Amino acid sequence: MREFSKEEIDSVLDLAQSLEPMARGRKSDMLAGKILALLFFEPSTRTRMSFETAMKRLGGSVISLGPAEGSSISKGESLADTVRVIGGYADALVIRHPKEGSARLASQFSPVPVLNGGDGAGHHPTQTLLDLYTIRKESHLENLHIALVGDLKYGRTVHSLAYALSLYGADITLISPLTLRMPDSIKADLSSKGTIVRETSDLGEVIDNVDVLYMTRIQRERFPDPVEYQKVASSYRITPEFLARAPKDLIIMHPLPRVDEISPTVDDTIHARYFQQSFYGVPVRMALLKMLIGGG
Amino acid sequence: MAEFPAASREDERMDRSKDEPGGLRVKPINNGTVIDHIAGGQALNVLKILGISGTTGATVSVVMNVESKKLGRKDIVKVEDRELREEELDRIALIAPAASINIIRNCKVTEKRPVDLPDEIVGVVRCQNPNCISNTQEPIKSRMLVKGKNPVLLRCLYCEQPLTEGIAEYLI
Question: Fewer CB within 10 Å, N or C, chain B?
Answer without folding.
Answer: N
